[in-house]
Amino acid sequence: MDDLFLKIIDREVPANIIYEDEIALAFEDINPQAPTHILVIPKTHIPKLSDADSSQKDILGHLMWATGEIARQLDIEDAYRVVVNNGAKAGQSVFHLHLHILSGRVFSWPPG
Ligand code: 5GP
Question: Could you give the residue numbers annotated as active site?
Fold first, then answer.
């Protein structure tokens, strides 16, 4: 399976890993779009959010919880944005589900 983020989980591709548990891994984005830019991924191969099935609800919930845990650890819990790009037309470029955590600058609304 050609999955870049599985290779990061397996330490075949290096990354600056900042959080790990039995379900999730988080690491710094290689091309940060904010002073803090973290990717939170499941250890299970789910290509995109809309591919998750009902048996994976706990994984999705865990990922959302993990964003808060990571934000607390980084001391950004009062101001961060979570983004999921779902599908190429929505900007997804890596097809292993990931939640972007962005913080450290002002974010406009609506998003671009
Ligand atoms: P997407 O565009 O799919 O929502 O987000 C993919 C993210 O993965 C991008 O922000 C991109 O910079 C990041 N990325 C792509 N390749 C690598 C890599 O090899 N290492 C790390 N740490 N991030 C990557």
Answer: 98
